[in-house]
Specification:
Layout: H1 21-33, H2 38-44, H3 49-56, H4 58-76, H5 78-107, H6 109-128, H7 130-149
Helix pairs in contact: 2-3, 3-4
């Protein structure tokens, strides 16, 4: 299968570029003479002062290239980032659903009826085994008092 080859445009042919190679040389020359500021050069060539800084200072250009590389690196990890964020969201969603389910149980009459039944069973157990329960409580209190004294 034949590959499609697109023509390679020069700076002058590409409409995305505002500055041609000749403009860049002129900007560098005028700025190196020290007569004009970057802002003035930008106004003359209808670009921003940052664009002039990019073409005049090598360090500015290198910094921009490093920023672009780091963005590409972050884009690579973006899928992992989205996956982690989605997992956190789903975990939070599950917690909310659990809380709502619990709320529904509390608000239902059947839950209160069950609670009453459980309480009545506990009261009946306490009445039957009152002496044994009180004895266990006294023993626990003695153990606690001895621990406090030590």
């Amino acid at each position: 299968m034949a590959e499609l080859k697109y023509p390679k445009y020069t700076r002058e042919q590409n409409l995305g570029y505002k500055l041609t190679k000749k403009d860049i040389k002129n900007i560098r020359l005028k700025y190196s003479q020290g007569d004009v500021t970057m802002k003035e050069l930008g106004e003359k060539y209808s670009v921003s002062g940052v664009a002039v800084c990019y073409w005049v200072n090598e360090s500015c250009r290198q910094r921009q290239l490093l920023d672009n590389c780091s963005r590409q690196y972050h884009l690579r990890d973006y899928a992992t980032y989205r996956k982690n964020k989605r997992n956190k969201f789903e975990h939070r969603k599950r917690k909310i659903e659990q809380y709502r389910l619990y709320e529904r149980l509390v608000n239902k009459k059947s839950y209160t009826n069950n609670r009453d039944a459980i309480l009545s069973k506990a009261r009946a157990y306490y009445k039957k085994n009152r002496a044994a329960i009180l004895q266990k409580q006294k023993e626990r209190d003695k153990v606690r008092r001895n621990e406090v004294k030590r």
